[in-house]
């Protein structure tokens, strides 16, 4: 038997009106009651009738998501959370892999009446998107955007704090010869992680062993570590811009018989799936995909519902996950 809104009301112990307000993203519901309704919806596997809601509200029931790639476990986790949260509110998530603002897929998504709102995940050319979305009156939220001036209606990670935490962890273990391998300079996360790292070292009057600029790729870590080995000069610790770079460093050092963490400690960033599968397990900074997805969905629903009049930035802290790839000097 199909679950109805009345079943959700009964399960949550609240009125049908309150349940309806939660489903439609109204801001006039107490947070405690909103959580009760969401829990009841999840337990009962309730799916609002999108067609009926569309006819009643004049909305499509579709949220667009533009992402640069899905070949990334962090992005994948954020998308999964967004899909689950939006489904609880009766929305369907339409995903487009971005090839730029002018691509056919993105043009389709941002046409009038195609979507009720749009989420941009780690966008490139975000200024162009924002101009077009504002022109068309489409509510939007940015996740991991590149330009600080666009932080209104955005969810960002405190990457400065993440880089600082990575360096502090290594410093507290007694390391003073610490290298940092960056990702691409176009990414805000690259610049902020490096800034946090350098700040922690400067506080101790230390300079980095080396700061190496490159890509968020395994090859970046592998080639750099191979060069260090050929030069006969290794740092005692490495902080990498992401877990892929860390994997490359580990591969090169282990091929050469360098013990990790006894001879070189390594800290990654992101807490990709591979981080807990590597040997040794990788110490890394976790970006909480569940919190990021929930915050983005909540902000967009409030914008669609008209209850969020002013822009706001939600900044989420990364979490240091200490595993086996770091030890004291």
Automatic annotation (TrEMBL):
<keyword id="KW-0804">Transcription</keyword>
<keyword id="KW-0805">Transcription regulation</keyword>
<dbReference type="InterPro" id="IPR010982">
    <property type="entry name" value="Lambda_DNA-bd_dom_sf"/>
</dbReference>
<keyword id="KW-0238">DNA-binding</keyword>
<dbReference type="Pfam" id="PF00356">
    <property type="entry name" value="LacI"/>
</dbReference>
<dbReference type="Pfam" id="PF13377">
    <property type="entry name" value="Peripla_BP_3"/>
</dbReference>
<dbReference type="GO" id="GO:0003700">
    <property type="term" value="F:DNA-binding transcription factor activity"/>
</dbReference>
<dbReference type="GO" id="GO:0000976">
    <property type="term" value="F:transcription cis-regulatory region binding"/>
</dbReference>
<dbReference type="InterPro" id="IPR000843">
    <property type="entry name" value="HTH_LacI"/>
</dbReference>
<dbReference type="InterPro" id="IPR028082">
    <property type="entry name" value="Peripla_BP_I"/>
</dbReference>
<feature type="domain" description="HTH lacI-type">
    <location>
        <begin position="3"/>
        <end position="57"/>
    </location>
</feature>
<protein>
    <submittedName>
        <fullName>LacI family transcriptional regulator</fullName>
    </submittedName>
</protein>
<dbReference type="InterPro" id="IPR046335">
    <property type="entry name" value="LacI/GalR-like_sensor"/>
</dbReference>
């Amino acid at each position: 038997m199909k679950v109805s809104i009345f079943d959700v009301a009964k399960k949550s112990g609240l009125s049908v009106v309150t349940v309806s307000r939660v489903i439609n993203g109204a801001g006039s519901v107490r947070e405690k009651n909103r959580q009760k309704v969401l829990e009841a919806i999840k337990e009962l596997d309730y799916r609002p009738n999108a067609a009926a809601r569309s006819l009643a509200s004049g909305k499509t029931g579709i949220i667009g998501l533009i992402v640069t790639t899905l070949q990334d476990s962090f992005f994948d986790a954020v998308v999964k959370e967004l899909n689950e949260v939006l489904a609880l509110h009766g929305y369907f998530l339409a995903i487009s892999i971005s090839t730029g603002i002018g691509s056919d897929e993105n043009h389709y998504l941002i046409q009038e009446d195609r979507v009720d709102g749009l989420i941009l995940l780690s966008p490139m050319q975000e200024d162009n998107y924002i101009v077009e979305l504002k022109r068309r009156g489409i509510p939007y939220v940015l996740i991991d955007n590149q330009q600080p001036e666009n932080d209104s209606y955005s969810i960002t990670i405190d990457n400065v704090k993440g880089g600082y935490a990575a360096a502090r962890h290594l410093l507290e273990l007694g390391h003073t010869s610490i290298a940092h391998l960056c990702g691409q300079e176009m990414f805000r996360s690259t610049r902020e992680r490096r800034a946090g790292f350098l700040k922690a070292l400067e506080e101790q009057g230390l300079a980095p062993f080396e700061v190496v600029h490159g890509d968020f790729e395994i090859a970046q870590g592998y080639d750099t570590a191979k060069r260090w080995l050929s030069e006969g000069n290794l740092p005692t610790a490495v902080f990498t811009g992401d877990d892929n770079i860390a994997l490359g460093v580990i591969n090169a050092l282990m091929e050469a018989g360098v013990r990790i963490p006894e001879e070189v400690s390594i800290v990654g960033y992101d807490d990709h799936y591979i981080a807990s599968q590597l040997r040794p397990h990788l110490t890394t900074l976790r970006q909480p995909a569940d919190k990021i997805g929930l915050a983005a969905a909540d902000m967009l629903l409030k914008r669609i519902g008209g209850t969020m009049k002013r822009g706001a930035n939600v900044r989420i802290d990364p979490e240091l996950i200490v595993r086996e790839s770091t030890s004291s000097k």
